[in-house]
Fold this protein.
Amino acid sequence: MMRASILVLALAVTASAQLQINFYDGKSEQALTAVTDLGTTSMGDSSEYRFHARNNTIASIALLPPIKIAGQSFTISDQPVPLPYIVAPGSFAEFRVRFSPADPGSYSASLTVNGASWLLRASAVAAPTVSVVNAGPALILTAGAPIDFGRVQKKQSVSKTIRLSNGSTAPLTIQSVGLSAGTVFHSANPPQGPLALAPGEARDFQISFDPLAAGQYNGILSIDNRSFPLTGIGYDPPMPAPSLTLTGPQTSGSQPTLSIRFASIPETSGNGIVTLDFRSSLTGVGDDPAVMFLPSASRSLSFTVVEGAAVASIGGLTEVPVQLGTTAGTVTLTLQLAGTTAQTSIEVPAAAITIDKASANRRVNDLDIVITAFDNTRTAGQFNFTFFDSAGKVVAPGAIHVNSTSDFNRYFAISRVGGVFLTRLTFPVTGDASQIAGVEVELLNKAGKSQTGRLNMQ
Amino acid sequence: MRWITALFFCLAAAAQVAEPQATVVMSSDGTVRELLGTPGGFLPGATLAGGAKSAAVCDTHVVMKLDRTIRFDDAEFDAPEGPAFIGFGTSCTHAVIYFSAAAQFALLTAVSSRPLSLDPALVAGEVVAVGGEMRLLVQRADGLHDLRFRSIDGALESDRALGFSADAALILSDGTLVYATGTRLSVQDTAGTERSLEIPNVVVRLSVAGERLIQVTTEASSLVLRIRTDRLDLHYVPEPAQ
């Protein structure tokens, strides 16, 4: 026990002689001399200085408590914990000294490390107290302290009031106040230097943060030789609610136009997609390939939201046609934009057969009637034909009923074009076919009747 | 490559049923393809050619102007470069062609292509439409003129100022005029009765797509105009990317 105590004491004595105390400016070290000048600090600010206790020997050395600083406005602000702290050969231990002058003038302090002492000198210059005085108590800033404007929506503005005050008993002159140029930080009423402040006097001014786009922003507020970083984040406003607007008839065979509109003018840009889905209301009938966006012949469209435009751009257009096909059912449009989904459905009702064109032709003793039409119920096949002579009288036996439902059923089972069909009906004529001058055709499906009107024989 | 209507038929005593082909259209990129279905219920069909400069349809016949040739159904003939104005005759078995880049006329059938001699001095303007019966619409400083030539010797039979200008025009086989000025599309029948409608975009080309069926190509899309007795119907055409 006695031997161990003697050994520790011997090590300590050795350490005090061999640790080298260096001033470290963040880049390089410089050995302390008898008197070391630390520079100038503005009144009301704090400056922190870094020191390295370096071991340049080949044996470990202890940094012993206490590290002492004796002098007004100087404190030890950081040191290794716990002390004693063993510094390995070639290594160092860092401690820091803070200088916080309350008044202008020259200051000195005695730094003592492992029993050896050095004299430190610093000076303080008169400077205003800088504080942010928005809501709540004033926040006093020291040089280098950031002024954070937080998150601000793009194209909106947030301002903070900066107060420059003279808390000393002597007049104070501020030579310059400046904001870094080319940033989104602005001041409508910046103080112009030189600015004289009497003891106790204060001067307020505003700095605003006006982000024009989303992103992180930085600036600098300079007051004489002191700098205060300005920070803020701009963010995009939320996208207004989109809606799918259809204009025009919404029946089979129609092509209403689709536009994408917003509840309010978008203040941001973005990209989205709108998709189309079709569900037939007919038993045993699935899709209708003629249901599509035009002209792309697709079921998916990309669109662009342009900031300031109330209507989205779909491939450069403000509206695109939606072809509703020729099958009764439901067309559903779904929009996805920035996590938002909007949907609208179009109920395409069952309807009587729509006739596109019809013609009647005479071939020796045959009469051909050709009809192009669509049946969105796919129940076509029943016809009534009434033939007329050149005097406009009905030719006996009057209306002729034809039931070709089975033919149409077979056709619709394999057709690739929805409810569209072309049908040719041939009537052999016994006698003089030229006596037949015209025909009227009635087409029936489960939704109703359609008529061609009078077709003249060609 | 004659354009045949029927794709298939169901055997039936009373009715034959088939998928209808609406017409043949040319996309803005020069793709010529069949169009299935009916107006308002179109489906893109088979591609017939790419890189076409002009195309027109009459009944089941298709004329396509390609880069250095012109086709009448399956027959192909040498032709000057560039687009052509195509005017079918009433029977659809021949067409008068005007090769605008070369300022040459030709009479085209399924078996021959024969130059037509027309005195350019008689034309005296920019040809904007050709009719199948030796009829031209010519744009001059005072507007469109309707010129009719004698088919035998190319002599000018009549020159009538129409009193309006057009960005694109057509003469249908029955004599009906179809013309576009900006976004306004007009149809004037032989009695002079005119009907008009607005098109969503500026019209850049008109072409015959069938009986009383007109393909209307605008700056943004392609449409077909169905000329009905009581109304004009306009429908968009699907143009899938190649």
